[in-house]
Amino acid sequence: MNQHVNSEVKQENVKTAEMVLEMPRVITEPAARKQAAENFIDYIHSGATQEGEKLRPFFNNLNYEIDEVGNLRIEGSLTGDLSICPLSVLSSWTEEVWQKSLESLVGSNGMIKCEIK
Fold this sequence. Notes:
Layout (H helix, E strand, L loop, with lengths): L2 E7 L5 E7 L8 H17 L3 H11 L2 E4 L5 E7 L8 H20 L11
Antiparallel strand pairs: 1-2, 2-4, 3-4
Helix pairs in contact: 1-2, 1-3, 2-3
């Protein structure tokens, strides 16, 4: 799983993070990719994992999109305790939740249609 994290300071000194989460190669259809992204966001808000609970403030004001190569790109502001948290830790938590959300989705009796190549 490749993940890229950038942090920048905005005009109001609000720290933001941008992450790119690699979509599994078997999820090739745009609708399935969108479903995986939505499941990930829902998974954060469900409180299913400890990491997700910690990340919830980041995901409350999150912008996300499926980029041109099909990966999930997320961007949001880091507030409260998250603003002082090392980006490597945020990255690790986000990747952990991404993996668990994918497992929950793919494990739901074929809920995602995909092409296997």
